[in-house]
Amino acid sequence: MDTFDFIIIGLGIALIGIGLFLFIAGKRESQHGNQVEGFGIKLNVSNPSIILIVFGIGLVLFPRIMPSNFIQGPSDEPRPGPSGPTVDPNDVKRIDPADPIILPDSPVVIPKIQPSSPTVFSPQGDWYLTQFQQNGFDLTNNLKGIIRFTPRNNNSQDWYAQFTTTDGWGDEYIYQYAGKINTSASGYSISIDTSDEPGFYPQGPSKLTMQMDNPNSLHMEYMFNGVSLIYHWAQ
Question: Cys-Cys with 195: which of 22, 144, 182, 200 at CB 3.0–4.6 Å?
Fold first, then answer.
């Protein structure tokens, strides 16, 4: 039964209740009324209570004796569209937020990103001294020089330099130096291995700053025996 059937039954029960009330009240007022006998049943037609009771009983029994499709209210079931079968709401799978998430058996492979190696700057050939500073003092006028770079491998190269210095009396002295420049992840390092300068002591790898200040100016800066040296070279 649907909602409409319950409304009919409720209306029938109400009519039965009203009829019983009128029947009891009318019976007290008059014991002799107009009666009609049919099929052995005497009905008091002057009192409408009997009619209300009979009609109420009929309404109560009406939804039970009639076919289910005789009175059909609005249906909640979906109707098939113009193209496609009917979809049962019970067959539609709904996602519950509390349900666990099932991952595939095979793990997802994330490709590794290989870090690009930094570009290594390695000067080559002959470069000529254009500026020289020692402990912050510009001594370019007192020194002339040339340096030559020769590659050894991807991370190392040999260097050879020759300097001409002039003292206060105008005398010139020529000294030669040689060593290596190594490249690592932390930067450059320079070693001075040999020299014909009197009293020279070799120096192990020291941090080297080497870069191009402009397209034709090579900047080199390092410490040698506690002295800060800055060179600028050009080809």
Answer: 200
Q: Output the pTM of the full model.
A: 0.48
Calculate mean pLDDT across residues 97-126.
Answer: 66
H/E stretch holding 221: strand 217-224
CA atoms within 13 A on the CB side of 202: 8
User: For residue 42, what are the contacts with CB-CB under 8 A and spacing of at least 6?
Assistant: 35, 36
Asked whether the predicted pLDDT for residue 126 surpasses 90, the reply is yes
HSE-CB at 18 with a 13 A cutoff on CA atoms is: 12
Please state, in angstroms and rounded to a whole number, the distance separating the CA atoms of residues 235 and 210. 15
Which residues make Cβ contacts (< 8 Å) with residue 163, sequence separation at least 6? 129, 143, 144, 145, 174, 175, 176, 177
Collect all residues with Cβ–Cβ distance below 8 Å to 188 and sequence separation of at least 6. Answer: 181, 182, 207, 208, 209, 210
Q: Which residue has the tokens 């998430």?
A: 101
pLDDT digits 0-9 by tens, 183-202: 988 899 999 999 999 988 88
How far, in Å, CA of 148 to CA of 66, rounded?
114
DSSP for residue 109: P
Phi, psi of 233 (to 5 degrees): -125, 155
CA pair distance 163, 35, nearest whole angstrom: 149
